[in-house]
Input
Amino acid sequence: MTAPRCRLCKTGASIHQVLSEGALYRCPGCGFVFSAENGYDPLSLFTRSYAGDEHAAGMSDFSLRMKLRADADSAGIDPSRLMNSAQQEVAGLVRRRVPKGTQILDIGCGLGYFLRAMSASGYAPFGLDVAESVVRLLRLDGFQVWNGTIETVPDGWVDPEICTAFFVLHHIGDPVAFLRTIRTKFPRARLIVAAYNDLDRGIPPATARRLPPRTYSWWGSAHLRLALEAAGYHAKVRHVKRRAADGGLPVSMGLYRWLGRRSATAPGRFLRSYYDTLPFWGWAPVLWDRWIRRFSDPLLGIGTPLNLDDGRL
Output
């Protein structure tokens, strides 16, 4: 079988590792690591994942996030408390530099924490997601959300000045084509992309969550810049400094699950206490990940269309 070309620079790639899920390839030119597997329907895959019916490659995390949102809502927790550091940083950037009322399209919006934060700040957020269950949930919240891939968005449905995509690129078989589609559909929109940073500190092990059907590519800062430039953007890439109060699944997932089996209201009370105290002790897991587990901080890429480089973001 002929080895595929690099998704970013089109150099002929070589096999990095052969696994039961298929081969991982590494580009000898830019170092990008990717899988050539792409046989999954994203609408079906992520709908099953949020429903708890898909467990390969850690996809059961998505059903846990659905439960987390339900428990957080029942406890009256401010949705902004559940945003990750990249979402928090981008929300602050938008508030400082983008006029209120601006249309923002969040691609791969998930459970809608960023949409809710932008709406509360006076913006006009739209969402897109492939999972029918989360789209239905967000429409009940009053948001305009498209169910499908970026290619299926009809012309005129939204005209954003800002597009965001938080931790979506690794789910995409052809990330440059994905970014080019955004560039073509929304030619005046600036694009803000967050990505997991697997490669800036060397090549990590091929753990389940770094494999298909969840993950098709591993990223570093140079790769995110290459992808944005190949799609037709001026690119700025930087690391996102993780914060103590970084939302997401609780560190103590075992306790959270146990409480859910004991009482319908206990998980909500636990989450309220957890997020209230997280700013005081949350630096411990951040420093553990950075110094002991050697995780790199996530990446944030800002793409400005080539004909629109006015330095606004």
In short: The CA atoms of residues 139 and 145 lie 6 Å apart. The chain has one domain: 42-243+288-305. The first helix runs from residue 42 to 51.
